[in-house]
Amino acid sequence: MQSPYFTEEHELFRSAVREFFRQEVVPNLAEWEAKEQIPREIWQKMGAMDYLGALYPESVGGAGVDFFYSAVFIEELGRLGNGGFAAAVSVHSYMALNHIALAGSSFLQEKYLKPGLSGEKIGALAISEPNAGSDVQKISAKALSDGDFYIVNGSKVFITNGYYADFITTAVKTGEAVSLFVIDGNAEGLNRAKLKKMGWYSSDTAELFFENVKVPKENLIGEIGKGFYYIMESFALERLSAALMSVGAMDYILEITLKYMRERESFGKPISRFQALRHRMADLFTEVEACRQLVYYTCWLLNQNQTAIKECTMSKLKASELQKKVADECLQMFGGYGFMNEYPISAAYRDARAATIAGGTSEIMREIIAKITLDNVSYKSAYGK
Ligand SMILES: Cc1cc2nc3c(=O)[nH]c(=O)nc-3n(C[C@H](O)[C@H](O)[C@H](O)COP(=O)(O)OP(=O)(O)OC[C@H]3O[C@@H](n4cnc5c(N)ncnc54)[C@H](O)[C@@H]3O)c2cc1C
Fold first, then answer.
1. Distance of alpha carbon 233 from alpha carbon 269, whole angstroms
2. Cα distance between residue 77 and residue 291, in whole Å
3. Residues with catalytic roles
4. Does residue 73 sit in helix, strand or coil?
5. What angle do CA 243, 307, 67 make, to 5 degrees?
6. What integer pLDDT is reported at residue 90 of this predicted model?
7. SS (H, E, C) 229-278
8. pLDDT band at residue 190 under the 50/70/90 scheme
9. What is the 3-state secondary structure (H, E, C) of 83-116?
10. For residue 58, what is the DSSP state?
11. Average per-residue pLDDT in the chain?
């Protein structure tokens, strides 16, 4: 039956992305996990296919397609069953570049967005700090005006792509307000330390230190002091991307679990024949389908140019919590093998744990949803939507 959201062209695009990943990504994932790094060539290959620009209009060098192409691309990233690669690509394409595309000057778009879309330059988005994660307004990295430059001091933590990024879209305080700057990866005084994680190995996650970093004033994104509003608005897209990744990841987890259940025998029959397990899987399939419909509906709202903060936040909360549950319950179907590293379900279980934290915790999602639904708080678009 025809989907209300995806056309035949979207499905052709899905097949092409899946085939590209099958050839160029899947055979290398184990190596990238072990090295905790993604080689530059794969970024360039994705750039050449226009995959990194699915969100952006042709006027800034993007593919100029509707949002459901992004939905397909992010879901397929999730379906790879590798949280690190999926996070690295989506942070670059949907977070680091997005601010430059929406509010960056033509200078910044030429210098960072275009090479970002072609995969020549890799971007990171640096908001979180050691003492300010959920509470973005409490960030303390500072930029002080000095002639044609801002001098930036402070640090950031948990930054995806942070170690190798060629540019870092960075939130800093300018006086009492927050502003966004692009900080070049070659800037003097920028130091980085790679962090060790329990999953998401392929993505490099770093702590960044800024010591009197001279940032040219032309690297300011949009207006001075408006960074907090830009960030809040882009969080909606970030959360929907995270939800789409979770939906893809859950499809992957259910698929590998079903395969295992059909092959593994106990008491003389495949474990997929035991009613106790069948009913649990039936529940999971049902919950994933319900979640998928919320996420797709939210994509439809974004495609209508609506900010959809409530629905994006609900999508992230529901999909990430469900991913954690699906990974946990499916691991149980593998018995002891589920606990072994060589079985991909164990990596899926580890990777799922980041979903309810990165991109805003579930508690913060509930806070936002409660404010909108219980207190009738509404959010104004920074771009006048
Ligand atoms: C793998 C990974 C990748 C990441 N990538 C990036 C990145 O690329 N860029 C970036 O800027 N950040 C990134 N982050 C950081 C992430 O956004 C933060 O970890 C997250 O926002 C939570 O902040 P925190 O870790 O400081 O936790 P805290 O804010 O200290 O929260 C600790 C606990 O308190 C709860 N809590 C806090 N405030 C409230 C409240 N008001 N009500 C109820 N509970 C509350 C939280 O939900 C959490 O359970 C990444 C994190 C991870 C794990």
1. 52
2. 18
3. 238
4. helix
5. 60
6. 97
7. HHHHHHHHHHHHHHHHHHHHHHHHHHHHHHHHHHHCEECCEEHHHCHHHH
8. very high
9. HHHHHHHHHHHHHHHHHHHHHCCHHHHHHHHHHH
10. G
11. 96
> The tokens of 380 are what?
């104004």
- Give the SS3 label for residue 162: coil
Amino acid in the structure at residue 268: G
Ligand 1 centre to CA of 358 (Å) is 6
Ligand 1 site-directed mutation target among 36, 91, 93, 134, most atoms within 8 Å of CB: 134
pLDDT, tens only, 300-347? 999 999 989 999 999 999 999 999 999 999 999 999 999 999 999 999
* Residue 291 CA: distances (Å) to CA of 245, 295, 371: 12, 6, 22
Contact at 8 Å (CB) between 36 and 164? no
pTM metric for this prediction: 0.97
Find the mean pLDDT for residues 194-202. Answer: 96
Question: Which residue has a Cα nearest atom 43 of ligand 1?
Answer: 363
User: Closest Cα partner for 18 from 94, 66, 64, 78?
Assistant: 78
Q: Which residues pair with 270 in a beta bridge?
A: 265
d(CA 217, CA 147): 9
Residue 42 in this model has a pLDDT that exceeds 90: yes
User: 359 alpha carbon to ligand 1 midpoint, in Å?
Assistant: 7
Domains observed in the chain: 8-122 (1.10.540.10), 124-225 (2.40.110.10), 228-374 (1.20.140.10)
Average pLDDT over every residue of 144-152: 97
Predicted pLDDT of residue 380: 74
How far is residue 260's CA from residue 305's CA, in Å, rounded to a whole number? 42
